[in-house]
Amino acid sequence: MPQNTLPTVWLDISDFLEYARGGNITVSGIQRVTANLVTLRGQSKYNVTPVVAKDDDAVLYAANIELFQKLVDGLQSGRHDSKHIQKLEKKVRKNLAPARTSAGDIFVIAGAFWAYQDFQFLKDLRERGLKIGVLIHDLIPIRNLQYVAPALTRSFEDAFLDVLSEVTLVLTISNYVRDDLKDYMQGRLGLDIPVETITEPTELPAVSYTYENIRDEVKAAAKQDYVLFVSTIEVRKNHTLLMKAWERLRLDRNLNVPNLVFVGKWGWGSEKIREYLDKTGGVGKWIFLLSSLSDEELSYLYRHCVMTSFPSLAEGWGLPVGESLAHGKMCIASNATSIPEVGGDLVDYIDPYNVDRACETFRSFFRDHDRIRQREKDIRENFRVKTWDAYCKEFYKNIDQHIEDKNALSREGNYVYSPGEIYFYGSDDVSEQNEKGGLLVTARMTRVSGWNRLEKWGCWAANNRAVIDLPTSLPAGRKVRVFIRVKAPVSQERMWLSCQAGGEDFAYGNVSPVAAFINFDGVIGQDGNLRVVLNSTGVPAPDSSYPTVHVGISAIGFVPADDAAACLGFLEKVLNETPKTLGDAIGTMPRGQASATGPGMGSPFLSRLLLGKAENPKPILGTVEKMSDRLSLFRARRSARKQKWGEAEKYYAAMLRRYINRPRILVQYGHMLKEQGFYAPAAEAYRQAAKIDPSDKEIRKHLAAVEHMVNN
C-alpha cells in the first residue's frame, strides 16, 4: 500500500465482520451505521478505509473496499441466507492487508467498541500520532444496571474506561447521551473530551415492495386491527406495561381495542415477560409474537397497523419512533431519556411507569379514531426525514474538522495520575472501586510494552522487561515513592524481580504467589511522566495460557518521597487492600482499640513505622541490595534481642517501608512492639500479617493474645 499523502480515516469494521460471521442476514441498528458510513464514505474530504484491529497487535489491517462493499450490500439487502453472508465475510478476512498509518490520521470506532477485550492497540496508535474517535450509542450498561446482564455491565465499563483514556473525539447519537456522557466523564473520571451529537437517520430503505413475499404468520397477525411494537423483547423495553394496560382496556365492552403485535428477538431479562404472557393467556388471540422479519414484512406491518407504541424505560435514541413517523404512523411513546428528541411534537408521550395514565392515553385514541387520522395528517405534513446521506455528511464533517484541528495533541493518554491514590488493573478491582464512588480512574492503559492481555485480577508481564507510564502533574525531577501490588504464579520455580523508576535500581528479590505491595524510590521524568520498568524472570504460566509469564501486577500508586503525612495516608490505604484471592477470612476479626489514635494520625502502627524512626541508621553502601536487606533484617533481630529498641525499630521501619506486605517481617516487628508494651501497634502488625496469610495459625494466636491485652 503506498504511503499516504493526505490523512486517512481508518474506519473500524471489526464488530461488523463478527456480526456477519455470526450468521445474521440483515443489518441491525449499530451495524447499519457502519454499513452506511462505508457506502457513503465519499462524504469525507479524506480517504476512508475500513480496517480491522486486533487486540494483541498494534497493526491495523485494511479491508479490500470492493469486497467489503459486497458484504455490506448483501446484508443491507436482506435477500441472502447466512451461508452466503458468511462466505462474503470470509473473503473479506482472507484479503486483509497491513495498513500503513501515519501521524495525523484518525482511527474511528462507530460500532460496538466493547467487543474488544483489550485496547492496548489504541494506546499504540495514539503514541504514533493518530487521533482516535468513537461513537457512543448509549450508557445504559453503566447507568441503568437493572436492565442489562451484570456481565455486560462489567465488560462495557472496563472497555469504556480504556477507550476514554485514549480517545480524542467523542460523537453521540442524541443530546441526552451527550449530556449523560459529559456528566459521567467529569463526575467519575475527571475528563473533559470534546463531545458532539449526530442524531440518527429516519430514512427507510428505498424499495417499492409488492408484499408478495409475506409469510402466513405475519398476515395472520395483521388480520385484525393492531398496535405495533418493534423492539427486542426484554425488560428494558417495557412490554409488560402494554400488556397490563391492554388487560384493563379489554374489560371495557364499549371500546374496540386493537390487538398487540410484538416484533423482535427475545433478549436479556425476558423471563418475567414470558411469565406474564402465559398469565394473560392472550398469545395467539390478542397478542402476537413475531421475529426474524424481512424488511418487506416489517414494512407490511407498519403499513397496516392502527398506530405504534414504544414504552421503553431507557434509550440512547429510539429508532422505532423515527421509523413509525417515517411510515406516516402515529406513535404513543415513553417520555424517558432520549425518546422525545426523536418524536418531538408529533408523538404522544406517556410515563413508562404509570399504567393508569397509559390506559387513559390509549383509551382516548381508541374512542376517537379521528384523532388518529389527524395525527397521521400532522405527520405527513410536518415530519422531515433525516437521510443517511445527511447523517454521513454530518458525521464526516466532524471527523474532518478534528483531523484539521491544529491544537497540540499529547501522545499520552487522557488521564493524569495523582499522588496518594491506588489505581487498579483488573476488572474485579474496577467493579469494587466503582461501588465506593468517587473518581473511577484505572491504571489499565498505563501499560506501555512487555505486557500480556488484561485479566480480571490484573496482568502478567509478557517478557523480562515490562514498562509502565503514568502521566502526572508533578514537576520533573520530583522524587516519589512508588507502590506496586505484585505477585508470581504458584510454581516450583522462583521469580526474581528488580524495579526502576528513574532513580536507583531496586532489587526486590523473589516474588510471592500472594499478591502484595512493594515500594521503591522513583523520579518524575522531564515530560512529567513516571516511568516504571519491571525486570523479572519467567516461570510457567498458571493455566498454560502462555508458555511462561513474568511478574503480575494488579495495582499501582505513588506519593512524594519527602511528604511523610502523604506516605502515612497512602500506607493506610495499602493496608486496607486485601488481595482478592485470600477472600474475607480476616474481615470478621475483632479490631479492639488498635485503630483509635486520634484525628489525622492513622493507626499507631503506621505512625511508628513512618513518623517515628524511619531511617536506617547505618545504610550499607557498595553491596547488592538483596544482601543489604538480609543484613538489615539480621541486625533488626539482634538489636531486638539485646532490647536496643530504638535501633531495632529503625531497621524494621526501613525494611517495612519497602516490604509492607511481607508477613515474616511484620510478625517480627509485632513481637518487638509487644515486648515493649505497645500492644495496639503490635496488633496492627499481626493483623496485617494475618490478612496476607490467613492460613497461618501461629499469627492468629499472636493476634488474639495481643488484642486481649489491648482490650484489658
UniProtKB/TrEMBL annotation:
Gene3D superfamilies: Glycogen Phosphorylase B, Tetratricopeptide repeat domain. CDD domains: GT4_MtfB-like. Residues 85-182 form the Glucosyltransferase 3-like N-terminal domain. PANTHER family: GLYCOSYLTRANSFERASE WBBK-RELATED (PTHR46401), MANNOSYLTRANSFERASE A (PTHR46401:SF9). Signal peptide: none annotated. InterPro entries: Glyco_trans_1, Gtf3_N, TPR-like_helical_dom_sf, TPR_rpt. This is Uncharacterized protein. It comes from Novacetimonas maltaceti. TPR repeats lie at residues 663-696. Residues 212-377 form the Glycosyl transferase family domain. Keywords: TPR repeat. Pfam families: Glycos_transf_1, Gtf3_N. The keyword Cytoplasm does not apply. One of its GO terms (molecular function) is glycosyltransferase activity.
